[in-house]
Design a protein that fits this description.
Helix content: 55-70%
Oligomer: single chain
Radius of gyration: 15 Å
Mean pLDDT: 77
Strand content: 5-15%
Shape: globular
Largest sheet: 2 strands, antiparallel
Number of domains: 1
């Protein structure tokens, strides 16, 4: 989690980048907030494993964002060392080996946005409708289906 300050800065820059879809901005910001909160699936007090779920969730959200925009957009906004895209891919590849299966299943659930456009998101918030819906099944995150 030494990268957390750089990830927070990346999140701030991506929030203002018009090339990033609103739903992906929300998911990435939510993942950063999850990592910063003291309450998570595996408490951060447990050395190493306590930080793996945070890093895994942030990496999943970042890779979803990259799939919906472009890796170059994320790289342009990254100010930390190394390649943030390669780092996220490495974490997503390694973290499942350290996480309990139940937690991995929750963190890896498919998430769909309802609806995808910004106006629809605003209407959903005003009506107190869910913005994210977990789809049944395991696997990597996929783009939301339009309804």
């Amino acid at each position: 989690m030494m990268f957390l300050p750089n990830l927070v800065a990346l999140c701030g820059r991506l929030m203002t980048d018009r090339r990033v879809p609103a739903a992906d901005k929300a998911l990435f910001a939510g993942a950063i907030l999850y990592a910063a909160m003291p309450f998570d699936f595996i408490p951060d007090m447990i050395p190493f494993v306590g930080q793996v779920d945070d890093a895994y969730l942030i990496s999943l959200a970042l890779l979803r964002l990259i799939r919906h925009t472009n890796a170059d957009v994320v790289r342009e906004n990254w100010r930390g060392g190394g390649d943030v895209v390669e780092l996220a891919e490495a974490i997503v590849g390694l973290a499942p080996k350290f996480l309990p299966k139940r937690i991995l299943r929750v963190l890896s659930a498919r998430v769909e946005t309802v609806p995808e456009d910004l106006d629809g998101l605003i209407r959903a918030v005003r009506k107190s409708e869910p913005l994210l819906v977990a789809s049944p099944g395991e696997g990597e995150l996929k783009p939301a289906a339009t309804s």
